[in-house]
Amino acid sequence: MRAYFKSILPIIVDDLIDAPYCKDCPEVASECRKMLEYNLTYGKKIYSFSAISFYTSMEDPNKLSEENIKLVNILGWCLQMFHTCFLMVDDIQDRSSTRRGLPCWYLVENVGMQAITDALWMYNGLFMIIQKYFKNHRNYMPLVELFHKKGMETAMGQSMDLIYGKGGPPHFRSYNRNTYNCLTRSKTGPVFTLPVRSALLLCGINDEALHEQVNDVMMEMGRHFQLQNDYLDCFGYKTLTGTTSTDIQQGKCTWFIVNALERASPAQRTILEENYGVLDDNAILAVRSVYDQLDLQNLALIHEDESDKQIRSQIDRLPKKLPHDLFVKLLPVTGNIRKSLQNAPGPEEIGLISKEAGAYFKSLLPTLVNDFIDAPYYKDCPEVASQCRKMLEYNLPYGKKVNSFGAIAFYTSMEDPNKLTEENIRLVNILGWCIQMLHTSYIIVDDIQDGSPTRRGLPCWYLVENVGMQAITDALWIYNGLFMIIKKYLRNHRNYISLVELFHKVSRETAMGQSVDLIYDKRGVPHFPPYNINTYNYIARCKTGPLFTLPVRSALLLCGINDEALHEQVNDVMMEMGRHFQLQNDYLDCFGYKTLTGTTSTDIQKGKCTWFIVNALERASPAQRTILEENYGVLDDNAILAVRSVYDQLDLQNLALIHEDESDKQIRSQIDRLPKKLPHDLFVKLLRILYRRSG
């Protein structure tokens, strides 16, 4: 279905630029073709495929002719144009930087604000396509009217979103459930209703009551989706959003601010009023602190579950002639917040640790921060101590902490139950924070080297006011400080020396991995000769593998297990998981979407040695190799498109998913061969956290 759908796009593009006003101006036609191909080609096209699926399920089988299948695919492209033109405008209004893995259209060279008229041209063009192919359909005018109605509702939704996102003092008096529901009903609901209702019309079904019933279900799905967008903006991480709690900065009316205002104490409300809608890093932290105090993150998850049940109940009440199973299939597409976080469950959701254990872990951070800044050399310099506290509290609290929780889970599973004392539980949690510190120190440096803008939903530390390159010494300070923590709490442990040496070894290997990654990051001059699977495996093994081995091996040492052969066996399994993780990072960078990554295809721009370029070079024809050599590592939008076009021709996206499946099976086989005294189920749980993270 997808291949056939894709094959229709050139027809649509030709139809749009074959209009009389383009024929006499080939330059304009060329620019219009470029604009359409740039904006329409990418994206998941969920709404388009939904319309096709609903139509083929509801239509009389005798009417599923070749011509009608072509028509519903054309309708799918009209839906894609509808969605895309609003995204183009939304990107300008929100000053977004990337969309679907490429620079937003308005940021492309020589485009600028012309993108507004491009979006309007595309919007009007979809009606030309509907007229050309559906004019003789009995529901031609209802179809046109439906698109106009949903266009008006969507435009109103975006306008409302801007009205309630002016920055500075927000419109708190209007921030209530009614306002929020009205906003989401207009902003996201119409885009969800359009595919199903247009499919009904194409089937000849024009029953007003039935359309209204379907409309209610899909509007509720749109609200469900908006809650998840709000969640990701506030609590998502860099690999998901690439943005920094922009809803808080822009003073938007979200589920979180509405619920915060309902629950806030007078003191908390004052904090919200003073900081919400303020373009300042500390303001974001202040608002999110109130959200944490009110436990809004967990309340959102509960609300999502309730919404899911409500929608399923609405689906059950739909007439039997409608394909209930397709409505249910659409529901997971709207998310489940837990899955949206990198499309994989986090350590608490998957049972790696309990919520209580996670809360206890979090409670230890203030103690460790105090340990850092209570050193003698800070007592005479309170300003430095204050800055160090700020730096630690800014960088350490956020993130999934899978590695830290992994160490805790493995220790509590392997240790003699009689030794699981309150003190030992405290020690393994402190060890978990040491792992988090090591990881964070490298992330701070990595962000500087990659020129990254955000990390874990906040500006990267080096971009915070008055920090800059001081972040490098801050990272070194955290790194050295973790050994001070290990010394303070674990000096009398029999494996203290082995533990310190393990941290040193992992740190050394990780540094080597980042150095190798930078060596193969020479923009404009990629090192194609050594780009092969051996080089790639070496980079992955150094860059991500060590941080995967550390939690399990440090837990073994804390249990008093120092068997070299056993450590080597565990090391092999975790290194393979690290490689598995790196493949998914490569996938997300190349084929991720804005809601996942925020900035995509930077690997292509930087000429990095990834799984995709290695496999492309192995499979490329001479002509394709020339394209890769001319465009890989080039800072140009067209160069990204050229490389990704070769990737598409070689079907690398599907090959990567197949390779991921094979890697998953290989790791499970390695886990099966581990000694029985090790907790196999925990290794599998870690793998589940990684599996299909790329969605």
Automatic annotation (TrEMBL):
One of its GO terms (biological process) is pheromone biosynthetic process. Pfam families: polyprenyl_synt. Keywords: Magnesium, Metal-binding, Transferase. It comes from the Eukaryota. This is Farnesyl pyrophosphate synthase. Its cofactor is Mg(2+). SUPFAM superfamilies: Terpenoid synthases (SSF48576). It comes from Photinus pyralis. One of its GO terms (cellular component) is cytoplasm. GO terms for molecular function: (2E,6E)-farnesyl diphosphate synthase activity; dimethylallyltranstransferase activity; metal ion binding. The keyword Metal-binding applies. Pathway: Pheromone biosynthesis. InterPro entries: FPS1-like (IPR039702), Isoprenoid_synthase_dom_sf (IPR008949), Polyprenyl_synt (IPR000092), Polyprenyl_synt_CS (IPR033749).
